[in-house]
Amino acid sequence: MNFEDYRGVWVFIEEKDGIIAEVALELLGAGRRLADKRKTQLSGVLIGDQVTGLAQTAFEYGADCVYVYDDPIYRFYRTETYMRAMLACVEKYKPEILLYGATSTGKDLASAVATDLPTGLTADTTQLDVEEDTGLLLASRPAFGGNIMATILCKKYRPQMATVRPKVMKALQRVPGRIGEIVEESIPITEEDIRTKVLEIVRATTQRARIDEADIIVSGGKGLGGPAGFQLIHQLAETLGAAVGASRDVVEAGWIGHHHQVGQTGVTVTPKIYFAVGISGAIQHIVGMQNSGLIIAINKDPAAPIFQSCHYGIVGDALEIVPMLIEGFKAALGRKEEADARKV
Amino acid sequence: MLHIVACIKQVPDTKIIKMNPKTNTMDRASAPAILNPYDSHAVEEAVRLRSRYGGTVSVLTMGPPPAVKAIKKCIEIGADEGYMITDRAFAGADTLATSYALTKALQKIAETRPIDLIICGKMTIDGDTGQVGPGIARRLDMPPLTSVNKVVELNREEGYAIVHRKLEDGYEVIRSTLPCLLSVEKEINDVPYSTMTNMLRAARYQPHIWSVNDLPDIDKTQLGLKGSPTIVSSVWAPEKPKGGTQLEGNPQEQVRQLIDILLERKELFQGVT
Amino acid sequence: MPEKFDAIVVGAGPAGIACAYELAKAGVSVLLLERGEYPGSKNVMGGVLYRKMMEEVIPDFHKEAPLERPIVEQRFMMMDKSSAVTFSYKGLEWAQEPFNNFTVLRAKFDQWFAGKAVEKGALLVNETVVLECIVENGKVVGVRTDRPDGELRADVVVLADGVNSLLAKSLGFHKEFRPDEVALATMEILKLDKKLIEDRFNLEEGQGCTIELFGDATKGILGTGFLYTNKDTLSIGVGSLLSGLIKHKIKPYELMEYVKKHPMIRPYIQGAEPQEYLAHLIPEGGYRSIPKVAGAGVLVVGDAAQLVNAIHREGSNMAMTSGRIAAETILAAKEREDFSEESLDLYRQRLMSSFVGQDMKKYKDSTHHFDKFPQYFEQYIPMMNKAMSQMLTVDGSSKWEKQKKIWRDIGTAKQKFKIARDIYRAWKVMK
Ligand SMILES: Cc1cc2nc3c(=O)[nH]c(=O)nc-3n(C[C@H](O)[C@H](O)[C@H](O)COP(=O)(O)OP(=O)(O)OC[C@H]3O[C@@H](n4cnc5c(N)ncnc54)[C@H](O)[C@@H]3O)c2cc1C
Ligand SMILES: Cc1cc2nc3c(=O)[nH]c(=O)nc-3n(C[C@H](O)[C@H](O)[C@H](O)COP(=O)(O)OP(=O)(O)OC[C@H]3O[C@@H](n4cnc5c(N)ncnc54)[C@H](O)[C@@H]3O)c2cc1C
Ligand SMILES: Nc1ncnc2c1ncn2[C@@H]1O[C@H](COP(=O)(O)O)[C@@H](O)[C@H]1O
Q1: Core-most of A331, B170, C31, C261, by most CB within 10 Å?
Q2: How far apart are CA B165 and CA B162, in angstroms?
Q3: Residues in domain Electron transfer flavoprotein alpha/beta-subunit N-terminal (chain A) (predicted)?
Q4: Which structural domains are found in chain A, ordered by start?
């Protein structure tokens, strides 16, 4: 393997329903930095059905070039089809670094590609850097359940691959009109070759405030005592127009569904305001919310680690504090409600 | 007869692990070894499928000798057979080398009983990558199906499986040929309290244990540390935020202060009625 | 059909494991049931394991068992608020074979010991709680566990379920404890560097020391404390009779904090990191509290039979010996194919003529005695401290004068008589 042949930083541009996934834009931001440091190009790989138009968005977020595989066969993500496209592209153009979002699609694709190439793959990266002269990727990630951080290197193989956690990297400011090169690619592949078929896609029916998008999140932990206490979290969230988050212990206890879990094995969130109520602040939880704009902790144990990770803390019984907060906010925000009430 | 193999791993319980702050290594004694929680769901799913369709459930692990315990745990859940590969040569493997070794073991298991379905956990709590499952699938040229949260149907005669794959905002229904490999989410099932019959079976059970030389046609350069493209170059303690302002006064006063602080960002609360 | 075994042993502590080991060794089918995640996971003990009784089960165990340190020094500290009179014996003959005793951490030791029983053929099932004995026609014929299809049968059920044996209680073998029959002990395991331990306790590499604490350790309440050296941890604990705790309205963990902060103890544990906190009951009713230990198809061993010598803090050794004697009894009964109460009562007879019964009898009045006459702990220990202080403080007065003063301070002739009588009484119950 001649390392000289491998050049450029690539990003897998995950797309769904004609929209580029947030994480892909974040990766273009991170990739741009690496590419500049290596004085090389940043490219995207875009796979899908009628997606060529999205290349322009990628340019505006920092890509110099986008390889496009545009074919109805790529309409839904399937490991088999996407993997073949990606493998063909890598073998033809030989990138030095290839990044994927650590989403279910990105992880699935990266694992398959890494095995076939073969090459090393670092999972769930939260920090990225590159050695300027050697091009060695320094991919850092939490390990042992978040108890330590480790930097992982892949010295013997190219490309160097990593999946990167959503919400950790920052997308660049969009530059409208910024242009780049589109390289249209295709591989011979027919539906008959493929062993998996997507029969149906079912969007979650119930409407929930999605915690990965919300500006305000009220999260509750074991300290609320039980499902009844946890209702207070719903009430405060409703008062603030916030989404509801939870610690893992709460999810495992069945007080609320999996998709509300914040943290290492849940969702990483970066709301503008994050309330941690009755949450101890285990490292696995912290890594999922530490980049929030303003973190507020309510816990009755003054020694709870959460107070090391918050901007403002209240030491007290949540069952007492939260109702007061609800009252207070209602009074401060809810003039309209009162006015409405008066009108009637 | 249907043959399902679940891949399982014994891991330190990272939830209660203690780290040595000086060396950033883990204090092994502080963390009891447990069956990777995600893998218990993989085994349970295999057991449930067996009760629907009949057949055999085997489990496979690669690990040091004490990992026999993890296999016994799987027998308690209801697995029929347990296989373990253990050898110094496997030590230090990353996901690529792990999936290689496991693939070789799976091929050997398949010699006595062809495999229809492999089930892995979503991820391990120590390695925490979720890469081993898809890696095995690629090496065995099976379709990998990750994030599976429901198995709708298995049809061995006609050679297909229908499963749900969890998406960020829902799920997709996928049909795949058999054999294939599933990585399953925790929510796919609840692992019930094991029956006394299974407990006794597990207490008596002796797993099949293989060393590297028991695996035919193995390329030793692809194993363990040697066969691992990724290496850990440094470890450090994660940065901890410095801690914020503790509000003061009685609860009423604290709540008042907090509300005042937050209302400075009133724009965030727009749209709230 | 529930599976049937020759014997089912409930509880994998020293008593249960020793019993299962002996039975398995003799080739009978034995099932050992433990509610903890693994044997030892829930077990608390300061940690002195006596070589002799262990050896009677597994000769040469010290070559492979996970032992912490062989004890070469035993200290006894009579504590007052800011002083202590200490007696000690250190003997290097204890540093080598055959050794005298060792510190152990039960979480490790019990696991190892149970593993040995499994090697011999015992079947071990963890994480299973035995809910009750199945009784048919007045005879115990098996147990019911908390698992689905959880009924099991056996010729004999051995209750080794520890101090608060609910199973023995539900069979009516013993009553609820009275608060003066049981001590509540709390202990902590503190992590400390090996080298520091050896320096602080004046030990050669690998050797161990035990300190028993009396007097102010328990704020004068009847009870004792201990501080033991492990490999790289210390075990520290205090225990006192429930009745004392109730009378003085003090919570066990408050006593624990008190001991840890005590100026006589603090320097030993300075900088040590708490690793584990445990609490447990100790049966201290002594000989008079021993319940019925044999019934039709059932035997009671170890703490479940209240076999603890509170004075010498011996329990695990009695547990093992009782487990071993129970196993021998079962083997004999099996030969006769007779598991009736009369047949199994042989266990009680043998137990009582062994050191267990003998010691229990010898100290039968000790706890009651000290409980009834609190002056030993409340008055005499402080008095002793004061006397030593006066004797050893160099202040220009002659030793002769000092002795006179000490004698005067003890009080009137009547009080002196009372002390003499108490000392005689204590000597009588302990001798
Ligand atoms: C591999 C791995 C991954 C993990 N991933 C995640 C993850 O993604 N997300 C996650 O959250 N966890 C995760 N965990 C679990 C994590 O380690 C913690 O166990 C979990 O976050 C603790 O949840 P908690 O704070 O709700 O509960 P606890 O730790 O039990 O804390 C409860 C807190 O409430 C306080 N409290 C009690 N009563 C009151 C009251 N009346 N008022 C106010 N405060 C009160 C207590 O003082 C305490 O601090 C993971 C663990 C591992 C090993
Ligand atoms: C603080 C403290 C310090 C001590 N220090 C010493 C010392 O230094 N030296 C010494 O020799 N002795 C000491 N002892 C006493 C000693 O610990 C006991 O005498 C000894 O452990 C008794 O053994 P056992 O097997 O009878 O009971 P245990 O060790 O209590 O074992 C009983 C087992 O039964 C299990 N069990 C209980 N109920 C059920 C059920 N329903 N179903 C299934 N399983 C069940 C329990 O989980 C446990 O594993 C100390 C005790 C304490 C509390
Ligand atoms: N050493 C191993 N032995 C058997 N199965 C494993 C091993 N390591 C990982 N697996 C399987 O692969 C899944 C994902 O693991 P990981 O990639 O380490 O997160 C696990 O849930 C297991 O099903």
Answers
A1: C31
A2: 10
A3: 9-198
A4: 3-193 (3.40.50.620), 216-343 (3.40.50.1220)
CB atoms within 10 A of CB B167: 19
Write the CA distances from B72 to A151, B87, B113, C37, integer angstroms.
Answer: 35, 19, 21, 13
Contact assignment for C148 to B193 by CB distance below 8 Å: yes
Task: Give the ipTM.
Answer: 0.81
- Ligand number nearest CA of C159 is 2
Superfamily of structural domain C4-68+104-176+286-353: FAD/NAD(P)-binding domain (3.50.50.60)
Considering every ligand atom shown, identify the ligand nearest to the alpha carbon of residue A323 and give its number: 1
* Residue of chain A with shortest Cα separation from B98: A115
Exposure b/e, B115-151, CB count within 10 A at least 16 = b:
bbbbbbbbbbbbbbbbbbbbbbbbbbebbbbbbbbbb
Q: Alpha carbon of A338 to those of A332, B255, C296: distances in Å?
A: 11, 21, 76
Ranges of each domain in chain C? 4-68+104-176+286-353, 182-283, 368-430
For chain B, the C-alpha Rg in angstroms (whole number) is 23
Assess if CATH 3.30.9.90 describes domain C182-283.
yes
Query: Residue C347: CB partners within 8 Å, gap ≥ 6?
Result: C293, C294, C299, C325, C326, C329
From B196, which residue of chain C is nearest by alpha-carbon distance? C150
pTM of the model: 0.84
